[in-house]
Prior knowledge:
Shape: globular
Helix content: 40-55%
Pfam families: GNAT_C, NAT_N
Domain GNAT-like C-terminal: 147-295
InterPro entries: GNAT_C, NAT_N
Number of domains: 2
Structural class: alpha+beta
Bound molecules: coenzyme A
Domain N-acyltransferase N-terminal: 26-145
Strand order of the largest sheet: 1-2-3-4-6-5
Amino acid sequence: xxxDLPLSGAVKPYPEPDAADVRELLLDWCxxxxxxxxxxxxxxxxxxxxxxxxxxxxxxSIAADMGGRKWLAxxxxxxxxxxxxxxxxLASVPDMLAxxxxxGVEEDLSRRVLADVGEKLRLxxxxxxxxxxxxxxxxxxxxxxxxYQLGRLQFCVEGAGPKPFVGMHIRGxxxxxxxxxxxxxxxxxxxxxxxxxxxxxSGPEDLVFKCDSWLLDPQLRDWLPERSNIPGxxxxxxxxxxGDPKGxxxxxxxxxxxxxxxxPVEKLPRDNTxxxxxxxxxxxxxxxxxxxxxxxxxxxxx
Length: 302
Ligand SMILES: CC(C)(COP(=O)(O)OP(=O)(O)OC[C@H]1O[C@@H](n2cnc3c(N)ncnc32)[C@H](O)[C@@H]1OP(=O)(O)O)[C@@H](O)C(=O)NCCC(=O)NCCS
């Protein structure tokens, strides 16, 4: 996959962030923890010339596709540099801000979208017991100006064709997934995307929202209590396809248990209703699946 990246400097010079930039961007813009900012500064100093070259090439892949679709395929960061992808992302924050300003996106939204970096650094620390950004390529949607946090939900321009569908994503931090919160977010997105991408969407009627997630598995309805928000969220979608036959282990271990997927079932935490429900399903051989669906706006009253 590395061979598919543009070469160093192919699009524009790589503005490699220095220690002060890394610290400031992480603390002031990304809402990161001081310990993650400290480790990112140390990690930057520890990069060898080959890693620096790779960071430059990752930056070029962003610079070459501002305003594109979805997130980019990047090679996985490996030891000893689990934060490698963070540096080109931070280097591209000024590009993101220029893109946002050019399209009338306010700075508050630029900051909100970057807060996901701080969250995922926290999640990586919980998962691996050290600083890291295991899905750094996810943030290429953020910094290329195609993913936005509008209220509770994130929305990303994803599909093919002249009016690409908008993918819906759900951060862990941000509170319960109530129907009111979802409705507010979707209402915002219906206005936002035609305003920011008039070249793609002439009005709200051009927007199709899709989601692909463990949250859409209708089997959850049989295991979660009435008061739980998750089944209500899933029921907003018209499901498409049978779901991934490989099952939902990766997603459940990461998002429900905050554990790496090699953690044995007996070591998973049972601290709350959701964890106990998912585990009870596993113990009864429920084939949990990630499912995809298209948002049915009428079910939100929109
Ligand atoms: C999506 C999310 C915000 C829903 O949270 P919610 O609105 O509180 O959901 P529910 O009302 O259905 O929760 C029911 C119970 O499960 C718990 N719970 C919900 N999501 C949880 C999660 N990800 N991890 C641990 N516990 C969770 C709640 O605390 C509650 O427990 P309690 O009744 O013992 O207090 C939450 O699941 C989350 O943060 N997920 C992580 C991000 C994610 O999965 N994104 C999608 C990636 S594809």
